[in-house]
Design a protein that fits this description.
By secondary structure, this protein is mostly helical. The chain has one domain. Helix content is 58%, strand content 0%.
Length: 90
């Protein structure tokens, strides 16, 4: 049981470090700050990925109330390419 708890804890630390290194995390945080939540629990129009992050990052669209500096957006897109993430998940 101790090993399971330790592995879950270390996994959480690894995920946290990945988020710190991920320039897209700041865009997701901006979306959350404006009331967007996880897609699975969100009301229509308030899904963090579908309605906020994806339009900004992958479609170069504006989302009302959210202003992302071009440099942050560029870093996020470069990061996604370096990790071989899909450029448009729809």
């Amino acid at each position: 049981m101790l090993i399971l708890g330790l592995s879950l804890f270390l996994g959480s630390i690894a995920q946290a470090n990945d988020l710190l290194d991920n320039p897209c995390a700041s865009i997701l945080n901006e979306c959350m700050d404006h009331g967007y939540v996880e897609d699975q629990v969100a009301e229509p129009g308030r899904q963090i990925w579908l309605d906020c992050a994806n339009p900004i990052i992958d479609r170069n669209q504006r989302v009302r109330g959210i202003n992302i500096e071009p440099g942050r957006l560029r870093l996020c897109r470069e990061y996604k390419q370096s990790k071989n993430f899909a450029t448009d998940l729809e």
